[in-house]
Amino acid sequence: MKTDHFQSPDYFLMDELLSEEHKLIRETTRAWVKKEISPIIEEYYEKAEFPNHILKGLAEVGVFGPYIPQKYGGAGLDQISYGLMMQELERGDSGIRSTASVQSSLVMYPIWKYGNEDQRKKFLPKLASGEWIGCFGLTEPDHGSNPGGMVTNFKDKGDHYLLNGAKMWISNSPFAQVAVVWAKNEEGRIWGLVVERGMEGFTTPETHGKWSLRASATGELVFDNVKVPKENLLPNKSGLGAPLGCLDSARYGIAWGAIGAAMDCYDSALRYSKERIQFGKPIASFQLTQKKLAEMITEITKAQLLTWRLGVLRNEGRASSGQISMAKRNNVNMALQIAREARQIHGAMGITSEYPIMRHMMNLESVITYEGTHDIHLLITGADITGIESFK
Ligand code: TGC
Ligand code: FAD
Q1: Per residue in 215-226, pLDDT tens?
Q2: What is the domain-level CATH number for residue 324?
Q3: Domain count within the chain
Q4: Which residues' Cβ are closer than 6 Å to ligand 2?
Q5: Which ligand is nearest to the CA of 390?
Q6: Is the CB of 247 under 6 A from ligand 1?
Q7: What does pTM read for this prediction?
C-alpha cells in the first residue's frame, strides 16, 4: 500500500485569507482523503469501479450538502468551506469529488431550492446521511451542450405524470436511489421531477469502456412510460434556468476541485524532481525542470486567488454565472496543463499508477467536458462581456 506524502502548496500565504473554521474543515477532509482514498484509489481506478464502501464516510465528513441548512441534515456551512472540501476530494480523485458534487449541488440543491417543504423533509436528510445517493439527468444522447433541445417529456395523466425518454452520461446513475430528471411538459416547458428507483419502467444501465473518471460510476437513465407521482414534481422553478442554476453551484465546486488535482500533480512533480538524479544531479537543478515547476505554482496561485474571490462573492450572493464559468474553465484547463507537465517531469514513471499523475490527467479530460465544455464556457464569457450570445 502506498504512502500519501502530499504537502499542500501555499505560495501566496492564502491560508491567511481563511478562517480557523475553514482550515479545520479543510484539514478534516484532507486527513479523511489520506486515510480512506489514497490507499485504495489506484486499485479501484484500474478495475473501473466506484468504491461504494466510502459513501458513509463521505457523509460523515460532511461533504453531502455542506451548505444545506442544518434543519434538513446539511451542515449550514459557507461557500468557501464547500469549495475547500471539493478541493481536497479532487486532490484524492475527480471521481470522488464528482459523487459529492452531484449529491450536493445537483440533487440536494434543486430539492432545497425548487422543492416544497414536504419534498425537502422527505429527501434531504437521507441524502445528507448518505442513506440515499442521487443523480442528475440533464444530458441526452442528442442534446449535450444544448440541453434546451431535450426530448424527454412527461404528460399529465390526472393522478400522475407519465415520463418517457432517456438521459446519458449520468454520474452515479447505476446505484442512485433517486434521480433529479429534467423533462418537458406538454407545453414544452422544462421541469424537474424526482424519479425513484423501483418505479416501473425506470432503468439505469451502466456505461462501460471509459478511460477517464474510472473510479466513478456513469450510466443512462431510461424512462419507458414511468408513472411519476405528482408530488415528485419540483414546483418552485421551471425553464432551462432551473437546471442551469444547479450547474452554477456544481461548476463553482469544480473550480475548487481542479485546484486539488493540480496541487497533487505539482506536489508529486516537485518531490520527484528533487529525488531523481540524472547527469549526476537532481533533475530539479535543470532550468527546464524549474521552468515547468515555476509555471505550475504560478498558475495554481492565480487559480487559488480567483477561486477564493469567487467564494467571497458567492457568500455575498454576488457571483455571476459568467464569473463561475470563467473560473471553471480556467482552473480545469490549468489543472490539465499541469498534469501534462508533471507527467513529463516524472519521465516513464509518470505513466504508471505508482504516481497519481496519469489518473488525474485522464480524469480531467472528463472534467473539462462535463458541466459545460471548455469552449461553451468561453462562449458564456463572450456572451457576458459583449451582451451577444453566439451559441446558436
Ligand atoms: P439561454 O437562452 O442562454 O438560457 C436559458 C435560460 O436559462 C437562464 N440561464 C441561467 N440561469 C441560471 N444559471 C445559469 N448559469 C444560466 N445560464 C442561462 C437564462 O437566463 C434563460 O432564462 P429565461 O428565464 O430567459 O428562460 O440558453 P441556451 O439554450 O442558449 O443555452 C445556453 C448554454 C449553452 C450556455 C447552456 O445551455 C449550457 O450551459 N450548456 C452546457 C450544458 C451543461 O453544462 N450540461 C451539464 C450537464 S450536468 C453534468 O455535466 C454533470 S457532471 C457531474 C459530475 O460528475 O461532477
Ligand atoms: P457536444 O455537445 O456534442 O459537444 C461536442 C463538441 O462540440 C464540444 O467540443 C463542444 O464544445 C462543441 N460545441 C457544441 N456546441 C457548440 C457551439 N455552440 N459552439 C462551439 N462549439 C460547440 N450530464 C448530466 O446531465 N449529468 C451527469 O451526471 C453527467 N455526468 C457526466 C459524467 C461524465 C464522465 C461525462 C464525460 C459527462 C457527464 N455528463 C453528465 C454529460 C456532460 O455534461 C456532457 O458530456 C457535456 O455537457 C457535453 O455534451 P456532449 O458530450 O454531448 O458534447
Answers
A1: 999 999 999 999
A2: 1.20.140.10
A3: 3
A4: 102, 135-139, 144-145, 169-171, 213, 218, 366, 369-373, 375-376, 379, 391
A5: 2
A6: yes
A7: 0.98
